[in-house]
Specification:
This protein has about 1000 residues and is α/β, with parallel strands linked by helices. Helix content is about 60%, strand content about 5%. The longest helix is centred in the first third of the chain and has 27 residues. It is globular, with a radius of gyration of 34 Å.
């Protein structure tokens, strides 16, 4: 942190009124002064140069001779002394009294309030960052350095003449680079290597001889899985240093090259700093509430607590609890986790992995949620499981975090979610014994002992009621099979029945067991208890219990539950909370409810047995589907005003939610993604099939954003197959169209092309107008990608006419923007700009913020190719802002890619490289291989333009492999680039 200029001593400000009129100065950019919010006139460049010289002298007096040398050097004017006096006099009048003082034939700036000079503020922040780093609080240190670097506003002392200003400019810029290198080093220590590559690429272009930046770039690339590029950076650096300075790289750079060549494991992950016990970026506290009546399991609590207490100083402490359903695995794990919270001051993560269900949680989805909970922005979260897992471990490095992985399917599901860092620990619960989870401390949880079971029962029921009927109480817990879940439900029922005695409960349980004697022994006690609890419910409670158990999702919201029950939200909440009191339903979070998987199975059995007709069960699920469809249609309408899709969806008999703004609508869609998609799959048949297809269509953002693409694609496949089996050409056409659209987002163009043709044929046969429009638009895009330009134009012209015939101006605008790209490719640049402008204006007239961003994207692309780079950047920048705010990572990446293309055309290779690097992060998985190949090609051109030819060749080689694998025509251009690069190096 050394190397910064010394600055004037400052005093603390006084009252608030003094602060509001206090003087402030900046020199890390143009030299400026303010009194409160009012900008002061600091005069001519020479006068500002004198002010800067005084501000940077730490309050020490500068003689007139020193100031003359500072302003004019060896060639001062004849009236230099008079000029200095004039400048000082003017400044004294502009500033507060007593600030600019005269003494000993010179001048000084004294008595500035604290924080008055930006250089002093940077000094303070840099010192705080150094202290934070020393204590291991790297996240806080990074934030402090980020704030310090944010105080630079362009070139220091901008526009000032004189040798002193020039020397200080050099010094202040060197200081900025030192701080920047420190912050980037911390970025890599915190696992932010993928994001750092873009910034480091631009910095090495601006400062090609600065070896520390090259070293950081090599490390960032290596940790991002780009070893060949990292080695190419070294080769480029060695060649540049030899050509420019006639020297070899310094030892540190050479050592890093050797470690990369040897795949040194020490480079793969950041070194582990001390835990951040003072300030951490985000400290999640996700543990479910522990039960107040936790009982027994003393030896297990002690054993698990000891393992967790040993986490500090160990690579990772993992404990895996195994046992049958209802044995209390989750309750024990949550209880121990709460007891151990103090040992994990940086947070506790929790997830229900749904391993006992038909569709367990995907590890990459869980990692995304964990990374967001740990403070990682969406834009920084990679898409592949491997990259997310690596970033997750890096973010946890230096922290002490407990991770509770509940209800795991198997060890394969768990492994990517383990923190793997010293000081962290994981608790895993599962119905299977995880013998293949390396290093795990395994615990087999059996039923409670009779004494423990009796203690639990007594805590819930009350000691007085049990004391006089101890034998009956023992009969009850024995009838419950000593399973905690069964005991809790039975005891809750007795606690709610003050007129019952314990012996009455025991007798009822015995009767239930006799009725269920055909069951296997392992299920007997639990189901008997369920029967008892269910049998005592009020009719409204029993109905809610049966019907809500039919829904397939991992949990259900209060609003969705109200739709299932066909009740007002307030009444629904009352009945659900009463079910929570009976322990038959769990409150997953405020406004969300879930079943233990065994209870869900029992609830469904009750629904089949006790509902007056199957029609009621179907009606309940139909209302849930209607609720999701109506609400998703509302979200679609808010996102895309004027889009006619909402008018072509199946009618619903249930109203959806209403949202105040786009943000609230998006939040609902993404938070309900898993229950919504489960509802789609569950509704793939019979009278609900068409509505399920339309729900998936309306929820297209789940695919376009990449957030839930796999689940979305799987649901689409299920619907297509169901529609085909039902011989419903309308539903099949829409389902195939939805799939084609999803494949387009993921870069599966050949499959998407085939499906779009199928969708068009099916929709024409079903006389379904809007899908025909969409299919024609998609076919125009795919024909364009395949260089069949006449065919593409025919489809796009057809789409425009069809959309207009349907009154769908939003769809017509989309096709116009696509046609603009075709005109651009076929050397009709002027008409391309006109078409894109027309489409954008149509979107904006409709108030269509999200799709207008697509219009600005197309317009920026056309303007860039039409030699209007400034206008192109402006439109692409507007698009980028909207795509980021709308969580559209595919389009965020594509817009960054287009910005890189414009930068190349405008001869800005360093900026092009930075934008292309940023584009790679979201496009690494979401957009497919072809799009990634395009970005790598442009990145190689940009790198070649900034003298990093070795790295450029690595990018082109990877792009060529992609194009050859896909048999893409772009391969020919890349072969030419590599051939020319090889000839230049020869």
């Amino acid at each position: 942190m050394d190397g910064g200029p010394r600055v004037p001593e400052q005093r603390r400000p006084g009252s608030g009124s003094e602060e509001s009129t206090a003087l402030r100065f900046s020199v890390l950019g143009p030299v400026r002064a303010w009194r409160g919010p009012v900008s002061l006139n600091t005069g001519s460049p020479q006068q500002r140069a004198l002010l800067a010289a005084l501000l940077l002298r730490e309050g020490r007096t500068a003689t007139a001779g020193e100031l003359i040398d500072a302003l004019w050097g060896d060639d001062p004017p004849s009236q230099a002394l008079a000029a200095v006096r004039t400048y000082a006099s003017r400044l004294r009048k502009a500033l507060d009294a007593g600030v600019l003082v005269s003494e000993s034939g010179g001048y000084a700036v004294r008595g500035l309030p604290e924080g008055a000079l930006d250089v002093a503020e940077v000094h303070d922040l840099a010192n705080e960052a150094e202290k934070a780093k020393s204590s291991g609080a790297l996240g806080h240190a990074r934030d402090l350095l980020g704030r310090a670097l944010g105080l630079w506003d362009g070139e220091p002392l901008a526009g000032l003449p004189g040798p002193y200003a020039e020397a200080q400019r050099v010094r202040l810029e060197e200081w900025r680079l030192q701080l920047l290198e420190s912050r980037l080093d911390m970025d890599l220590e915190q696992g932010c290597h993928a994001e750092a590559v873009s910034e480091l690429t631009a910095l090495t272009a601006a400062h090609p001889l600065r070896e520390r930046l090259r070293e950081l770039l090599m490390l960032a690339l290596y940790r991002s899985g780009r070893q060949a590029e990292a080695l190419a950076v070294y080769a480029d650096t060695r060649r540049l240093l030899a050509d420019e300075l006639g020297v070899d790289p310094r030892p540190g750079l050479r050592e890093l090259q050797n470690r990369i060549l040897q795949a040194d494991p020490g480079l793969a992950e950041p070194s582990a700093p001390a835990a951040e016990t003072v300030t951490a970026p985000v400290r999640p506290h996700q543990l479910p509430a522990t039960v107040p009546d936790f009982t027994g399991r003393v030896s297990f609590v002690s054993e698990l607590s000891d393992v967790l207490a040993s986490a500090e100083g160990r690579v990772m402490a993992v404990s895996a609890l195994a046992g049958i359903g209802g044995v209390g695995k989750t309750t024990l794990a949550v209880h121990v986790a709460h007891q151990s919270r103090s040992a994990f001051p940086d947070g506790q993560l929790y997830v229900d992995l749904q391993g006992a269900g038909s569709r367990s949680a995907e590890p990459e989805t869980v990692l995304g949620a964990f990374l967001r909970a740990l403070g990682t922005p969406d834009s920084a979260i990679p898409d592949s499981l491997e990259e997310r897992s690596a970033l997750y471990r890096s973010v946890l490095d230096g922290r002490r975090v407990l991770v509770l992985l509940d209800n795991a399917r198997d060890a394969a599901q768990v492994r990517p979610l383990l923190p793997g860092m010293e000081g962290c620990a994981a608790l895993v619960t599962s119905r299977v014994r995880m013998v293949d989870l390396a290093g795990a401390h395994l615990i087999d949880l059996d039923v409670m002992s009779p004494e423990e079971a009796l203690q639990l029962f007594t805590k819930i029921v009350g000691a007085e009621r049990v004391a006089s009927e101890r034998e009956s109480a023992l009969d009850v817990v024995a009838a419950c099979g000593f399973l905690p879940l069964a005991i809790r439900i039975a005891a809750s029922r007795l606690a709610a029945r003050r007129t019952w005695t314990v012996s009455v409960l025991a007798a009822k349980l015995a009767d239930e067991r006799r009725r269920l004697d055909e069951l296997q022994a392992g299920d007997l006690a639990v189901k008997a208890t369920f029967e008892l609890g269910y049998g005592q419910l009020e009719p409204a409670q029993a109905r809610a219990f049966r019907l809500l158990g039919l829904a397939d999702g991992p949990d259900i919201s209060l609003a969705a539950a109200a739709a299932v029950l066909d009740l007002p939200v307030e009444d629904t909440e009352d009945v659900l909370e009463s079910l929570v009191d009976t322990s038959l339903v769990e409150s997953a979070a405020p406004g969300r409810y879930r079943y233990h998987d065994l209870v869900r199975l029992y609830a469904r059995a009750c629904a089949e047995r006790d509902e007056s007709s199957p029609a009621e069960r179907g009606a309940a699920l139909s209302r849930l589907l209607d609720f999701y469809l109506a609400t998703a249609a509302g979200v679609y309408g808010i996102e895309r005003p004027g889009d006619r899709l909402v008018d072509h969806l199946e009618e619903t008999g249930v109203d959806g939610l209403v949202f105040p703004d786009r943000r609230a609508a998006q939040d609902w869609l993404y938070s309900e993604a898993m229950p919504l998609l489960a509802c789609v799959r569950q509704s793939a048949g019979g009278t609900t099939l068409r509505r399920a297809v339309d729900l998936l269509w309306a929820a297209v953002d789940l695919a376009e954003s990449g957030a839930n693409f796999k689940e979305y694609e799987a649901a689409g496949t299920t619907l297509r197959d169901a529609a085909r089996e039902a011989a419903d050409s309308r539903a099949e056409g829409r389902a195939v169209l939805v799939l084609a659209n999803a494949r387009h987002f993921s870069g599966q163009f050949e499959q998407a092309h085939q499906e779009a043709r199928q969708a068009l044929a099916l929709s024409e046969a079903a006389d379904d107008a809007l899908p025909c429009c969409w299919a024609a638009n998609l076919l125009g895009i795919y024909s364009f990608y395949q260089s069949r330009y006449d065919e593409a134009e025919e489809f796009l012209e057809r789409a425009i006419a069809s959309f207009r015939a349907c009154g769908d101006l939003s769809g017509a605008a989309s096709a116009l923007c696509n046609l603009s790209r075709l005109h651009l490719q076929t050397e009709r640049a002027d008409s391309a700009v006109g078409l894109a402008r027309q489409g954008t204006e149509m979107y904006e007239e409709l108030g269509h913020t999200l799709k207008a961003a697509n219009g600005h994207y197309a317009l920026g692309l056309a303007l860039g190719k039409n030699s209007q780079p400034a206008d192109a950047v402006a439109h692409l920048g507007q698009a980028l802002t909207v795509f980021r705010a709308s969580r559209q990572r595919l389009w965020e990446g594509m817009t960054l890619f287009r910005l890189a293309e414009v930068d190349l055309l405008a001869q800005r290779p360093a900026q092009a490289a930075a934008n292309a690097e940023m584009a790679l992060t979201p496009l690494r998985e979401i957009g497919g291989e072809w799009r990634r190949g395009n970005v790598l090609t442009v990145l190689g051109k940009a790198l070649n333009g900034i003298g990093q030819s070795g790295r450029a060749q690595v990018c082109w080689t990877e792009a060529l492999e992609i194009y050859e694998r896909l048999e893409s025509p772009e391969a020919e251009e890349v072969r030419g680039l590599l051939a020319r690069a090889g000839a230049d190096c020869a």
